[in-house]
Amino acid sequence: MTRRLFASLLCLGAALAATPAPETAPLQPRARERVAPPFAPLAIDGSTIAARDRRCDLSGIIPLPRVGSREVLDNAAVRLDGQALMPPALTWTLRSPGAAAAERRWQHGPWTIQTSYAVDYDGFITLDLTLSPAAPTTLSSLTLDLGFTPAAARLYQVPAWGPTRAGAFPASAEVTTPAPGLWAGAEDGGLGVYVASFRDWHGPGAWLTLARGTGGEGLVRLAVIRAETTLTAPTTWRFGFIATPVITPEPRHWQLYSISATAEDLLHLAPNALIWSGLSDHYATFSTNDPAGDAARRADVERLHAAGRRVLAYTTYAHVEEGDVEVAEDWCLHTLAGRRHAQPVGPGSKARRLYCCPGSAAWVDWKIADLEAAMERYGVDGFYVDTSYVITTCANATHDHGWTDAEGTRHGDFLVWSMREVWRRAWETIAARRGEAAIYAHHKSGCPPALAGFTSAFCDGEQYTGSSIRQLTLDAFQAQDAGGRSARPPSSSSSTTARRCSDCAKRANTTTPPRASCWPSSMTSCPSGTRASTRCANSWPSATTSASPMPSGRPTTPRTTPGASRAPRTWSARPTAPPAVIPSSWSATRPTRRSTAASRAPPR
Description:
Layout: H1 3-16, E1 43-45, E2 48-51, E3 54-57, E4 64-67, E5 70-71, E6 73-80, E7 83-84, E8 91-95, E9 99-108, E10 111-120, E11 125-133, E12 137-139, E13 142-148, E14 155-157, E15 166-168, E16 172-175, E17 181-186, E18 189-195, E19 208-212, E20 218-225, E21 229-231, E22 235-244, E23 258-260, E24 272-275, H2 294-306, E25 310-315, E26 319-321, E27 342-344, E28 352-355, H3 361-378, E29 382-385, E30 393-394, E31 403-404, E32 410-411, E33 413-414, H4 416-434, E34 439-442, H5 449-452, E35 457-460, H6 474-481, E36 501-502, E37 523-525, E38 531-533, H7 597-600
Parallel strand pairs: 23-24, 24-25, 25-29, 29-34, 34-35, 35-36
Antiparallel strand pairs: 1-2, 2-3, 3-4, 4-5, 6-7, 6-13, 8-9, 9-10, 10-11, 11-22, 12-21, 13-20, 14-15, 14-17, 16-19, 17-18, 18-22, 19-20, 26-28, 27-28, 30-33, 31-32, 37-38
């Protein structure tokens, strides 16, 4: 028995005993009677479901989104061996304010096909596509084809650790390296598409293709099966869709979201004060603090409240300091070699932070309790959340992350659904205690639409410094920072709005001018009742320029980009390159958007 086979058997044994992560767990949505602010209850009308002013028509297999009065997709289809699947009407199996579910099942030749949907109140739709053969059956291709309207086919972004893959929607492009998904759209709206796992994708070549049609439309193909593949048992592929944004952002000037609490002479510049490490004995945790220091910490928070500032505490959803708490193997993010991953907390530091995976339900439970401890013991209003990335993969078989291909090579799974679980629960926990959540997030690859609904503000940092800034074309900048990428509405109350601001004041002596832009807000209400003007601009960032294979350490002092200003909206012009040749299987008879009154009318 070879070493590789032995390792694979060990991983398989662990996976059989695992509590599956959200990427691979059976789709079993549960009713949610409460919806965290500022969201509204889901509204269902026939085959259409609405999350605020975003509506998705589920009469076909792939959701057809509409943002306000704007359609994002003109058509969409799932093709099996080149033939578009035509599903029957779906049946809603769950209707509740915060979650909904639907399914359908039909026969197509030798296949029994089932599509199952779960919809969350932020508008994220999970689609499970299952093919069940009556006997071993071979297929040669399975694709998801999305036709973006010419108005929506302006920009794109594929998140990754490597060089930025973003900019004007291309005449032709292929992606062969696995990624969690893509976003495509325009400044005023778009669609995020996600892949839960590549474990049942087969064949050589590109899994993702983008092309420009002769009429200016954008063609996106996700090629699941690219070579003859025989299925002997039911096989399920999981996808995620989220239309962006919830509402059209209003252009305003850029502004800071928070200032380091030690920069007392600058606190008036932002509505929030950020305490970097003063509330933690160990890296980014609170429940393990020595109670002897609680009185002094609470006094620091109360002093900032008295100055009219809300208080954020530095943390992450993905780390714990080694030795701070006993860490079960199930908590850990594993490398492809099956080992834990840890790094020094900072340059020259002897303390090490261990990477944890939100695919572990036990880790998520512990972290939510840790956040509650910070709010209860110290009175903080929210958190700055660092280095919790969907572009990271995990191969920990104890919670069913990772898989081994036919050649014996180990692969990891991206963490989109797992991250959504911890981000949603954190958002709801803070909102339940404070009436409204305040989460200031930092992602090296930009704030993904899948998490933006549970993010108050976004801090763009390392991807716009050093050599990476030279890779940032104007089109790429707009694709990463356009308001259309955001998936979160502004606050419905008078307090802090959904804003994305510069990574500008990480240390007490840092006075970096703002380089970012924000969601609109008319006024900000501070804890003391003091009100201050907070006019902001639109957009969320998303750049992927760091070549580092794993997240970096503690926050560092950012560099200033001279002359930075808000991206002109005219940067979104489509490329002038000649249209690409449309693949032959994209026939003129492909299914188009239904234009019935039921699908066009606003849901009741």
